[in-house]
Amino acid sequence: MTERVEAFRRRFRGRTPGLLGATRAYAVLCPLLDGADGLELLYEVRATGIRQAGEVCFPGGRIEPGETPLVCALRETEEELSIPRACVTPLGDLDFLCNQRGFLLYPVLGYVSADGLQYLKASPAEVSETFTVPLSFFRETAPELYAYDLIPRPPDNFPYEAVGIPRDYPWAAGRVQVPVWHWRGHVIWGMTARITAYLVNGD
After folding, report:
1. CB atoms within 10 A of CB 134
2. Residue 8: inside a domain, yes or no?
3. pLDDT per residue over 61-116, tens digit each?
4. Quick check: pTM over 0.70?
């Protein structure tokens, strides 16, 4: 085996595959807790002045170098909601999502103890409020479903002749489904709703 081949083996041996072309990765915690009506999910609302202000989401953020999705999710939850990571019991990794903008989102399910909830205090720089929703609500209430198309638009100077395809080449389009739930003045939608639906219903 030549040194050049060996260099490739060293590069890829033991590597965990990712998604080709993904430029960023994020993780969120799906905080499960005991409530008056059984198990509930904890959500937060993004603070005014930050990106996507006012949207409902799970606590989370960008995965830093050397972090696992779990470590990131626990760190971000502590930073945003002051819940100590020692008060969260990891329950498992959910299926990850790939966003059309080129990033991955890793949801992590964790159980927040009653002691951990006593520490709950939203960071005003990132979170305007928090609220909980019983899992039974999602199981008993179907979301409104909407969808939008991802339409490819190749540039006018695309080299059709060079790559050997006609100008009316049938580029593959995509479609994204957007579930929406309404809960007591809050709207849970988009990726957060997709994660919720998967968590509650397995799809």
Report:
1. 16
2. no
3. 999 988 999 999 999 999 999 999 999 999 999 999 988 777 899 999 999 999 99
4. yes
